[in-house]
Amino acid sequence: MNPSYPQENFHHTTFATSSFWAKRRSIVRKNTLHAQLEILKSTGRYDAFRLKWHPTYEEGYKALFWDSDVGKWLEGACYFLAEKGDEEGDKVIDEAVKELTSMIAGAQWEDGYLNIHFTVVKTGLRFTNLRDLHELYNAGHLIEAALIHHQHYKNNLLLDPMLKYVLLMHTTFGPGPGKIHGYPGHPEIELALLRLYSRTGNTHAYELAKYFITERGNLLGVKGQHFYLAEAKQRGEDPGQRPAGDAWPTANAFWYQQAHKPILEQETIKGHSVRAMYLLNAVADLVHLSRTREEDSGEFEKYKTKMYLTGGIGAIDQWEGFGIDFFLPQSTGEGGCYAETCASIGVMMLAERMLQLDLDGKYADILELALYNTALGGMSQNGKEFLYENHLASCSKRPMKRESWFDCACCPPNVTRTFGMLGGYLWSSIVKGKDLEIDVHLYNSAVLSFEVPGGTLSLKQDTNWPWGNTVTFTLDAPSSLDITIKLRIPSWAQPFENGELFTLSPSPIPSLKSSKSYLILTPSYTSLYRNTLVTLAFSPLTFQPRLLRHHPSTNQNTLSIARGPLIYCAEDIDNEWVEDHFKSVAISEDTKLEEYVAQDTILGEDFMKITASGVKVEDAGTEKGSFPGFDIVREKSVKKTDVQIVFVPYFYRGNRGGRGHMRVGFRRL
Amino acid sequence: MNPSYPQENFHHTTFATSSFWAKRRSIVRKNTLHAQLEILKSTGRYDAFRLKWHPTYEEGYKALFWDSDVGKWLEGACYFLAEKGDEEGDKVIDEAVKELTSMIAGAQWEDGYLNIHFTVVKTGLRFTNLRDLHELYNAGHLIEAALIHHQHYKNNLLLDPMLKYVLLMHTTFGPGPGKIHGYPGHPEIELALLRLYSRTGNTHAYELAKYFITERGNLLGVKGQHFYLAEAKQRGEDPGQRPAGDAWPTANAFWYQQAHKPILEQETIKGHSVRAMYLLNAVADLVHLSRTREEDSGEFEKYKTKMYLTGGIGAIDQWEGFGIDFFLPQSTGEGGCYAETCASIGVMMLAERMLQLDLDGKYADILELALYNTALGGMSQNGKEFLYENHLASCSKRPMKRESWFDCACCPPNVTRTFGMLGGYLWSSIVKGKDLEIDVHLYNSAVLSFEVPGGTLSLKQDTNWPWGNTVTFTLDAPSSLDITIKLRIPSWAQPFENGELFTLSPSPIPSLKSSKSYLILTPSYTSLYRNTLVTLAFSPLTFQPRLLRHHPSTNQNTLSIARGPLIYCAEDIDNEWVEDHFKSVAISEDTKLEEYVAQDTILGEDFMKITASGVKVEDAGTEKGSFPGFDIVREKSVKKTDVQIVFVPYFYRGNRGGRGHMRVGFRRL
């Protein structure tokens, strides 16, 4: 069974102009695409495929990812070009895409090889360091760009070079004699190859991806040795030495790349979080290709002990990845917090895949959580500034501050392409003969529309999500189809007074059925109410501010504020009195949360601010005796000053200047 | 002004036979010295100075510290030999000391050089890697052994070779042309050299130590480069590579050795905790040699934010050292805890030195805390098993378990020598003409006795410390002396009903004076009550169990139990129901603490166990919705089961078998 990809069906969705996501996608189209194009040009990335020397190449490995930076931008650009919209702006983008396509094709070697670094800088050393140098990661992003390029332009100008490269890779890597028995340090090519196969049936791509995934972590892969060890020795490196750069905590720590053992034998998730996500996504695709919907595979359970309540993953700065279970400090100044934007995009990708394998609201909850908080928060309201790390609290060494770009620029264009394909995340559909099922995962005013036997299906949803508590649906489809619609019920929904989590009108008869947090509108219901407004309403309580805590095993004795799918944070710009990144500010579980409407001038939209009463605690701990531990009886005399704390959505942080003080989890009084 | 060293004046103290510390010192003498001698022999360390090949030398750097292992044992042995005691056992120890002395002298090169590794294994590479290979650290411990050897045997058989080695070092290292402008990666030689100078007036030793201390961290020391960089390049190493072994988190992380900048410019304490302590001790000695008593230098304030409430320091396993401020998780399974035994011994050493520079009870509190908890706890009750790390909680990967020895064996013989010189930690004395001051830092039944003008001074203290609340003193001294006695008042003392922290009888007239938590018995008082029983009594409350918390900035929302200077912990052997290292067990600040007398069969002594009522909390966190954060309103329904928890002193842990579950800080309910 073929997976369905947001990248492949995003164009079935049209966002209502004034909806939450339409506004943001419009900003990406009007601002982000252009701003990032300018940066690609000014930093040398744009012209790099012309294969001339660039001064950055002197600076170690800074330019290693340039192919992928361009690839991700190209991919994002094509999603937006595929829609009607900003004609004048699109012309600029369209021309750049065409020029880049031509440059990329021109940079290809006769034998199909294609990579800037190993053509211009390290000629002759291609495929000698798969572990560290992102060669195949770059290829993967170029293939992903080629797939949407082909879909949009309906030509092969980018896809053909990539197919030629795939052929070279297939000749180079694999189990056979004379081939390299290896796989990349940073997964991505696997995702690209499997989607290429899914679209084109290219079996080379499938074989190669399957080999990369299943060979990974083979401890005896090359003459009885781990491939990365054999590869390092081949380069003349001492295997007792850690590679340059400081990411590996110990020598041969192959768990950094999830290659310490075969993926099916890995009991927990470890190492670099983006690599882990991309690998798991590829595994999910491979599984999907070989089976039908199955039971919960438990993938997410493995790392819920390693996920922040913002949907961020990865607490450890050094290897940009996971710590031990429940090790989730809020900031660098409190022991670590990384939560890379790309990793949360990886979480979204994996959640979407899991929903296809096992339709369970728990995956949709995580998808929504990562989307509204860490992924959306990775970009500023004006679409021109970004975050690489998504700390839950700032500290003096890492104040809250957005940047227009990064040397290692994976995150900004990853946000661009994710918003480009966003329509594909809202819902998924399965057609089997005259049976059709639509699963609605995310609520936002939009129309899903695609061709079906006998005409066009259109499902419209209308809502003020994430602020409001109702969603209305209108279905228009040929009467010959038996249509099931499944509507997600968030786990955070609060019940009405009668204990029900939602109402549906018109009400179905005999009664509502649901499965794994999806409400099922059966074919008899949908045929009865075709072209009729159907309303799903949640209790007003569902969209009132609520308090969250971290799991007690995290040792985070904190309270955080959420409202619907949004996590909230406090910033100094609303709380001028703050001096210490809110470290000394506590709230109690009895604090009264009040919300009020505020206006964002950039997007011209209303949103909700929340206030809570708290106290500033003057611990003066070390003065209460010279013991590092303090007598609890003396704690009663600690001085406390009342403060009023204003909270804004976490994604909204860092948009209004300020002194860089920000916090999600407040000490619990 | 010369520092006074516990190593130099320990023999002025005679412990009362049945006192807390006498029992433990007797165990060290009867068990530990012999058990460690057997291990030195069976592992090859004892005979290593015969300079024959040993199979361990094939195993990388395992034998690098062997000189110091022998040196520390030698030092410890001599302290005990200097006292009357176990005649038969002492004969064995005495013979071994003599044989080792002869072997060490025989292993010296013609030019004075003395080191096993660079004689047998890496001949010709001496002094080419001061940064990593512990060459001078080894020399330091041999010098420390030689000083007590000389004092006890009154011969130069060990001291002369070491003086010859010092001469070679003085020719080799220093600011002059042709000399190595370097210093060791692991301080220790500095301490040894300064004490050698203090005893013998050897100016080479002084110059060398001062050079090592002040040159350390010079960023431009060798041809405009940091010495460690220049040294690495000299060895043909790539400075971008981290050294073998995994301790350095990043390349050229010279803060690991506190050599990233000159010590006076270091604003916080970082890196390997034992190195840090030894360096600071050497700095304190250098300061002491150049001045008289001064104001609080604030040394301890720097790292109270990095000290566990047990007196342990160092949260990070990788570099056996400090994390950021307030990063103090309780176990490896909760993010890290190291708290090496040697580091706590370093804390004791530094606290004792600080008391000489600035008599303030806060240093004595820390001295006592580290002594009774992490240092004492580093050895089992029978003196034959040890702990390298002093976690505050066990976890499945690091269950609570003692070992008879370690490959890297720094801690066991460090405990031995510390108990050997323990008498020197109890009190210090300053004689100026006919003015004499005795500062009593630690309470334990013992007699201080030394020659003074006109006869012998003797100060006897009698107490059941750390269990009882009174200490009695009897002073006998020539009446010609004006004697001031200062008695420490612990910061954890709880007041009597009238608000006083203690009573003294007979009462002084007009009134008591005290300064920085030391009660001052003036010459007029001590002359009045010479040969009279003087009693210092604390409130019974002072020795009742009390609750401590970690500083809130540690994010440790825990309660711990203390009683007097002792921190308590719970173990599975007293709490058979425990299954999860007490992670799910919570106590409230209202819990009733009750104590009762228990008997230790090994030492045949009574001690106090404490019980507290708590609850086992079944969080089932992840089932309360798929969000990583949980609604606080749902927390109320969490299941709680009452449990009774039995606590024993932290030092007592791991002495009675069991399943390895142990914890100090319990979740706060």
Automatic annotation (TrEMBL), chains A, B:
<dbReference type="Pfam" id="PF20736">
    <property type="entry name" value="Glyco_hydro127M"/>
</dbReference>
<keyword id="KW-0378">Hydrolase</keyword>
<dbReference type="InterPro" id="IPR008928">
    <property type="entry name" value="6-hairpin_glycosidase_sf"/>
</dbReference>
<dbReference type="Pfam" id="PF20737">
    <property type="entry name" value="Glyco_hydro127C"/>
</dbReference>
<dbReference type="InterPro" id="IPR049046">
    <property type="entry name" value="Beta-AFase-like_GH127_middle"/>
</dbReference>
<feature type="domain" description="Non-reducing end beta-L-arabinofuranosidase-like GH127 catalytic">
    <location>
        <begin position="17"/>
        <end position="419"/>
    </location>
</feature>
<dbReference type="InterPro" id="IPR049174">
    <property type="entry name" value="Beta-AFase-like"/>
</dbReference>
<feature type="domain" description="Non-reducing end beta-L-arabinofuranosidase-like GH127 middle">
    <location>
        <begin position="438"/>
        <end position="496"/>
    </location>
</feature>
<dbReference type="InterPro" id="IPR049049">
    <property type="entry name" value="Beta-AFase-like_GH127_C"/>
</dbReference>
<protein>
    <submittedName>
        <fullName>Glycoside hydrolase family 127 protein</fullName>
    </submittedName>
</protein>
<feature type="domain" description="Non-reducing end beta-L-arabinofuranosidase-like GH127 C-terminal">
    <location>
        <begin position="550"/>
        <end position="664"/>
    </location>
</feature>
<dbReference type="GO" id="GO:0005975">
    <property type="term" value="P:carbohydrate metabolic process"/>
</dbReference>
<dbReference type="Pfam" id="PF07944">
    <property type="entry name" value="Beta-AFase-like_GH127_cat"/>
</dbReference>
<dbReference type="GO" id="GO:0016787">
    <property type="term" value="F:hydrolase activity"/>
</dbReference>
<dbReference type="InterPro" id="IPR012878">
    <property type="entry name" value="Beta-AFase-like_GH127_cat"/>
</dbReference>
